[in-house]
Amino acid sequence: MQKKGIVRLGINMEFVRHHDMSFANGVAKAAEIGYEYIEPMVHLGRELLSEAGYFHSVSLFDDPLWVKQLCAEHGVKLSGLSSHTPLCKPEISVEYLKMAIRWAAQAGAPVVNTDEGPKPFWTTKEQDYQLMTYTLTEASMVAERHGILIGLEPHQQYSKTPDGLDSIYSLVNSTAIGINFDTGNSYLAGGSDMYEWLEHVKDRLVHLHAKDISMAQSELQRGKVTGTPVGCACGDGVVDWKRVIDIVKSSGKEIVFSVECGTIEEAIRSIEHLSPLL
Predict the structure, then answer these.
(1) Average pLDDT in the 100-127 region?
(2) Nearest Cα to 76, choosing from 117, 28, 21?
(3) 3-state secondary structure at position 15
(4) Over 90: is that where the pLDDT of 192 sits?
(5) Is 241:234 a contact under the CB 8 Å cutoff?
(6) Which domains, from first to last, does the chain contain?
(7) Are the C-beta atoms of residues 179 and 143 closer than 8 Å to each other?
(8) What is the pTM (predicted TM-score) of this model?
């Protein structure tokens, strides 16, 4: 008999974006609410609002051990890094992903999450797939050395269907490459049943973005977009979270649900809705 999987609860740091809150204060707030894990967003170089303490993003130039220490002080862990970069643009993504992987290994984040990103306007699909193969090959070699997983997320033009996401996943044969399933993006894409899609990828799952979609957003955008930055509070929208949890538990894996919502109030409602279902 296959062992039952375990679901942990985390929060993507986007939840403090509209509160003009620094990363450090956001970590403290996530711990205060009761989340066990956090998922930082990382950027290259220096960014004015983050440096001033008004934005939650963390620079890959910052010391990863500082982040590890900060999380330990507040009793939270890293579920992964939000390190989205356009895989179709290797001049951006190759070095960024390799740096994020090395940074994640030092900070204690087991997964780096990404997607194919907006494609160059002038390339063909065949060219895009060659470019993604190059990027993922370079990144996966570094990830394998450092023991880090790469979570491919359904978020853009090619990954908006199960077959499309599979086609990217299959480009490179690497134990470091898995799936970061996003419930909101997969639902909004509108081309397939979200629960069947999750069932299809559950054995390759390394991380999950727990994103609910309000009825209003569903009616306005479903089938017209390939993703959305954040959703509504989990339990306020269209997603059947008990069903999602049951599918993930049937994989036998331990997976963190990183809640993607837009406010502190939504983060509170999300954990209040999800916790009893675990």
Answers:
(1) 97
(2) 28
(3) helix
(4) yes
(5) yes
(6) 6-277 (3.20.20.150)
(7) no
(8) 0.97
